[in-house]
Design goal:
single chain; 462 residues; alpha/beta; FAD/NAD(P)-binding domain; five-stranded parallel β-sheet
Length: 462
């Protein structure tokens, strides 16, 4: 190929990434007979769930945070043999069996990173691959995820011990015999703190604010199924009901040293973790306030107390990024500003899947996002007038998708949406546009021989 020569792929779509979001995009495009090519920098599908994928934040004890029966892809439930909250290896096996069941591997080029995308004056997109080759597409779907670039706060002072981000953490063996502190109390931070509680010489968790704790099971069933077992309740009913249940199940958590939440229930992600409470109840771990600075062997906290430590792990989240297309996104608070969290308002046919925070399981949301994008692209080819109407919505529509919640003012909540409000709005939008409804059996016609998919899933879950 001549240097800088561009291969024109016509009206094909470029999908970047073959994790769960990228696979959702591929299935939707394939179902609507849209040509596409998919690129994955790693050797196989799975995204962050493959611990062998360089930079994956997954650790040995990681489990799915939402329950098995509510968390599967649309029309492809997780196996009933899985536990209520599957392991990371089971999720990897499930994602790979999904790719096999719908024949998605054939269009994926593995070991092929995307280096850069560039918008042409024509409105089409030129994608530069890692080997320098360039290909022109009608559209680009960015599905490379948000949990790759570690967010490390800057803390003053000099520390004689080791400081790391949780993205480097893999096994509780790393804590053996050490005095360990986890900074941050998101769901991953709570998990890792429990690992430290079981293996470290002494274990602490530093928390900047209080959180609402929800046990993974209520009345013997997964907690998220309790909320989904009936019609959606208005927030003024749901919040006091759930608050009463939590008071009955967990009581006053400040007695374990946990700070009182500075926000109402549902205004930020709650912690789905009963193990941390168990370890606090048994003295296996202790709560400390926010870190002030380091002083030799000690960590000094904002209340003036200090602890001598060997290892500090920051479970402080990730900087959302899309390096190959960063200049085409509007970033606010470290989050890309997209219509319905998927459509660029400024650049036609640039899409994102997974750039959203919500109180819902991810995979069905990915499927819904992918379906909306594919329906819009199909209209561009078959019904330009309808696509033009949707262009106007992308440019000017600003629906309230908070579900009546006033979210915590933080970077994380810049793109937070309430799941029921989002799903209801998308359903109305599909009807308005005349797009088909996304049902559990919509993709049945695409299923290939799933017998071939089972061994791959079983190998990954072994």
């Amino acid at each position: 190929m001549i240097a800088n020569e561009i291969t024109d792929c016509g009206n094909a779509v470029c999908v970047v990434g073959a994790g769960p979001g990228g696979l959702s995009a591929a299935r939707a495009l394939k179902a609507m007979n849209l040509a596409y090519e998919q690129f994955e920098r790693h050797v196989d599908v799975g995204g962050i769930w493959d611990m062998q994928n360089p930079g994956s934040p997954i650790y040995e004890s990681a489990h799915f945070i939402s329950s098995r029966d509510l968390s599967g892809f649309i029309g492809f439930p997780m196996p009933k043999s899985y536990p209520d909250y599957p392991t990371n290896q089971q999720i990897l096996g499930y994602v790979r069996s999904y790719a096999d069941a719908f024949g998605l591997r054939a269009a994926i080029r593995f070991n092929t990173p995307v280096q850069h995308v560039q918008k042409e004056d024509s409105g089409k997109w030129v994608v530069t691959l890692g080997d320098g080759t360039r290909r022109r597409y009608l559209a680009v779907i960015c599905a490379t995820g948000c949990n790759w670039d570690a967010n490390m706060p800057e803390v003053k002072g000099q520390f004689n011990g080791e400081i790391r981000h949780s993205v480097t953490y893999k096994s509780s063996d790393e804590f053996a015999g050490k005095r360990v502190m986890i900074v941050g109390a998101g769901n991953s931070g709570a998990d890792i703190a429990c690992d430290a509680a079981s293996r470290a010489q002494r274990a602490f968790i530093s928390m900047r604010r209080g959180y609402h704790f929800i046990p993974k099971h209520l009345f013997g069933i997964p907690a998220d199924q309790v909320g989904e077992s009936g019609p959606p309740l208005p927030i003024w009913v749901a919040r006091p009901v759930m608050s009463l249940l939590l008071k009955m199940f967990t009581g006053d958590l400040t007695r374990f040293g946990l700070p009182k939440p500075d926000h109402k229930l549902f205004e930020s992600h709650p912690l789905l973790n009963a193990q941390l409470l168990h370890n606090l109840q048994h003295g296996n771990i202790a709560v400390r306030p926010d870190v002030s600075h380091y002083d030799g062997d000690d960590v000094v906290f904002k209340d003036g107390s200090r602890e001598p430590l060997d290892l500090v792990i920051y479970a402080t989240g990730y900087k959302w990024s899309c390096k190959y297309a960063a200049e085409y996104f509007e970033w606010r608070g470290g989050r890309p500003q997209l219509y319905l969290s998927m459509f660029s308002r400024d650049h036609r046919n640039l899409f994102g899947i997974g750039y959203v925070e919500t109180n819902s399981s991810a995979y069905k949301l990915f499927d819904t996002e992918a379906f909306m994008i594919a329906a819009y692209l199909r209209d561009q080819l078959d019904n330009p007038a309808s696509a033009g109407c949707f262009d106007e919505l992308i440019a000017h529509d600003n629906p309230d998708l908070s579900g009546g919640l006033k979210f915590v003012q933080s970077q994380r909540h810049e793109v937070y949406l309430e799941a029921h409000a989002l799903k209801s709005y998308l359903k109305r939008l599909r009807r308005k546009m005349g797009w088909p409804e996304l049902t559990e059996n919509y993709y049945d016609r695409m299923r290939v021989d799933t017998a071939a998919a089972k061994p791959a899933a079983l190998r990954a879950a072994a």
